[in-house]
Amino acid sequence: MNQTDAPDAFRRLAERLALLQSLTAKLAAARAPEAIAAVIMREALPRLGADIGVVAIVSEDGTTLKNIGFEGVSGDTQAQWQTYPIESPVPVAECAKTGELICVKTRDERTRRYPVLAAVHGEDEGGPVIALPLKVAERTAGVLAFCFPHLTPFEQHDIEFFRALADQCAVALERAALEADLRRQQTELKSREQRLELIHRTAGIGAWEWNADTNEV
Prior knowledge:
Layout: H1 6-29, H2 33-48, E1 52-58, E2 64-71, H3 75-80, E3 83-85, H4 91-98, E4 102-104, H5 107-113, H6 115-121, E5 129-136, E6 139-147, H7 156-203
Antiparallel strand pairs: 1-2, 1-6, 2-3, 4-5, 5-6
Helix pairs in contact: 1-2, 1-7, 2-7, 5-6
């Protein structure tokens, strides 16, 4: 980096840090996977200069992916790729399967490695692609991915930024899963209490406890 490039690089770094801080706050307020994906698509996609964004979640059995956020493509493409096998020849599926970052830096590399993307986007369109695993409790629960229209290669600080963004997205997904599980447990407990109350009322019986030490009922 020369002195002429330095101000632009520092400004870009400051913008990225501000974006990450803003996204972290908004992701913390999201309470469902779809809401988390909406934050990424609405806030991150345009400010990153990406033309396509994907947030996908992996099925419980690990065999399929579902795009809960998918912007920048036609409605037909969204419908075609709403749910797809983890063996599909696309970066999101490869990332989910391996649990490793996928970084495609040039259009030629994209076309060679992922002909499906070239067919969808056009061989003369699009550029770098990055897909990052969303780790929840050591499991790849989903994938965050972006496609860019420009041919500028990713630099290391770009990749680190995307890793940080994926980490925040994964934390939000984990929190949403925990809260959903808590709500489910609360609903089940309330249902059991209601059934027990109905049994007592219908049978005309009550509940009692016996203290063996004092012989009190």
